[in-house]
Amino acid sequence: MTITIIGGTGPQGKGLAKRLALSGHNIIIGSRDKERAEEISHELNQMLPNNFKNIRGFDNKTAVSKSTEFVILSVPWSGHNATLESLKHDLNDKILIDIVVPLDSKDPKKVDMPNEGSATEAAQKIVGDDVHVIGALHNVSAHILNNLECDINCDILVCGNNLDARLKVIELIKKGLKTNAYNAGDILSARCIEAITPILIRINVSKAVPFTNAGIKIWSPSE
Fold first, then answer.
1. What angle do the packed helices 77-87 and 119-127 form, to 10 degrees?
2. How many distinct helices (H) and strands (E) make up the chain?
């Protein structure tokens, strides 16, 4: 399977690229700057064993065209809508996995939700109902994603209006990232899921908390 990551030159995109490549997927990094995408893909391949150097870089439009099915959007919130506007006609027959959180530009410990209610809903409005938009991977630390020596330390909440697409993304996360993923319902759930991230940021920067890069876990009842 070939998976495209738009914004793959950023911290979260890099971590996802390495982990998914190690799972045997071909990874395409997309960037507005093709040379930057090629540079980062080369850099990431150097971190992987020879059998898993499956990362290539292209400009955004070419990157989307090379995706088998999944396109992951991992750009800063400030570039979220403009990036989608430029790619919306290229996303037909793709599942768009939106991992972007609309953090307040003045205080990342707060969320600044768009009028649509969440970044995931804003994406759905831009690309139209013919494209299945799935919100996922909002609450994972970029540091954890890039530290291949440790497992991902949180569960993943997945939401979106198309059930089949949700289930496909859940399966991708379970097998490709080797962590638990849960069906969190339709796209309205993104409002709650995205809002967890600034809370985690607040906890992680607190001097009263003796750790950083915390995530959330779904626990079964004690016996």
1. 20
2. 8, 10
**What would the two tokens of residue 68 be?**
């088998």
- Report which DSSP code applies to 222: P
Which residues, other chains included, contact 103 with Cβ-Cβ below 8 Å and sequence gap of 6+? 77, 110, 111, 112, 197, 198, 201
Q: Which two tokens stand for residue 142?
A: 């970029």
Rounded Cα distance, 154 and 140, in Å: 7
> How far is Cα 103 from Cα 118, in angstroms, rounded to an integer?
11
Strand-pairing partners, residue 58, are 30
Tell me the pTM: 0.96
99 contacts 74 by C-beta, under 8 angstroms: yes
Q: How far apart are CA 92 and CA 9, in angstroms?
A: 24
Q: Can you list the positions of beta strands (E) in 82-217?
A: 95-98, 103-104, 107-111, 132-135, 156-160, 181-183
Report the C-alpha gap between 202 and 27 in whole angstroms: 32
Give the Cα separation of 6 and 171 in Å (integer). 20
Q: pLDDT tens across 145-198, in order?
A: 999 999 999 999 999 999 999 999 999 999 999 999 999 999 999 999 999 999
193 Cβ neighbours under 8 A, 6+ residues apart: 118, 135, 138, 139, 157, 159, 184
Pairwise CA distance, residues 29 & 12, whole Å: 12
**CA–CA gap between residue 82 and residue 4 (Å, rounded):** 18
**Residue count (the chain):** 223
